[in-house]
Amino acid sequence: MENQQRQLTEDQIKIEQANFIAKVYGWMCAALVVTGLTAWYVAQTEELILALLSNKFLFYGLLIGEVLLVGYISKALPTMNVMMAKALFFLYAMANGLTLSLIFVIFTASSIASSFFITAGTFAVMSIYGYFTKSDLTSMGRILMMGLIGLIIASIVNIFMQSTMMHWIISYVGVFIFTGLIAYDTQKIKEMNIIGNEGTDEDTKESLMGALTLYLDFVNLFLYILRIFGDRK
To answer: Which among 159, 206, 229, 232 is placed 20 to 30 Å from 8, CA to CA?
Structure first.
């Protein structure tokens, strides 16, 4: 009898975890759609594209604003109300779409599409692995996070160096790091789900935080893959 009750509890946990991760993927996909539509719309609007291309202060201001916004969301999300959390989540997705609109100017549509599908396939495989693996990916996650810090520093340095070799090294290392982070973050998101609060505001905010994490992994992986496989106009 006790074994049956315990099994029932374990099954309920698995169901709740599956429902939670489905909500995470749902929010993430919605954010990707918002980003994609925003990027496409801006790319079709000549005035907006010219403003981004001709005004470096505007472009880098948007990038800095995105970094500050995602940092604020990550820190304040647990204490803000659900409506504000959703609004800021999609505001960030739209802001990201503004800056990503330039890829439609730089790369061909076919290479953007192929890079997206490569990214989607890689994401699916690694996220499934991270969700179902019995291995603890914490150690791998720490190594990848240290690698990410090094990647950011190298990218900043190469802005001034303009080294072609460094560009390709950064691109391939970026693909490796974010491919691993997808598995690590999926496992971490699965474990951070608080069992028993399904349907509450806290559950929604947890799923938004998980979606933001995987959204960032997906977008960064896509950009590095695009740098490798993208055909420039």
So the answer is: 206
